[in-house]
Amino acid sequence: MATTTYVNKRTAHRWRLLALMLAAVFFAFGSFWLVQVMRGDAGGPNVNVGNDPDYIIDNFSFVRMSETGQPRYVISGERLTHRPADNTSVIEKPVVQNMSTEHPNMTMTADTAHVNQDQNQIDLAGNVDISRPGSKTTQPLRIRTEALTVLPDEEIAKTDKPIEMKVGASVVTGVGMVANNATMQLQVGGRGRITLPPRTAR
């Protein structure tokens, strides 16, 4: 009887060990697949052949690193919905911040954003607000428009919609704009109008 009890205990121990090993294998495989999905790779189990969302993330934050290992820009938002067919994502209440150490950081917000990961392009839409703090050589900058295309790697933002821009106390309005944060250059298209603050009495 004692021998039988010992064998049963040893068999039960083996079954528990086998179950733990299988669970570890499935967990590792599932983690690997999730990483591939986040990177936009086509492989993985149960590939979504349509354009239905394959994952949704609430209150997320994504950091893009530079070649030197420094943060290049940060994208965050209330919800990210990824569609695998065209490798694009839709973000609700997006916030885009560049993390350049050479130029003042620029922050962009909007109602929604459409991210094309293959082209590294972000299209902001609805109540687009761009702000950049002042520095020793530049004045504070704020731009408002309804649509904006951002190329984060090039630090370029552009639109063909009407814009209102405040540079310090001056106001500039126009239709269309190209802003290059890397070169600190900004072009306003259309028949732009500049409103300067009144001169202070000496």
From TrEMBL:
InterPro entries: LipoPS_assembly_LptC-rel, LPS_export_LptC, LptC. Keywords: Cell inner membrane, Cell membrane, Membrane, Transmembrane, Transmembrane helix. Pfam families: LptC (PF06835). The keyword Ribonucleoprotein does not apply. Signal peptide: none annotated. The chain crosses the membrane at residues 15-35. The keyword Signal does not apply. PANTHER family: LIPOPOLYSACCHARIDE EXPORT SYSTEM PROTEIN LPTC. This is LPS export ABC transporter periplasmic protein LptC.
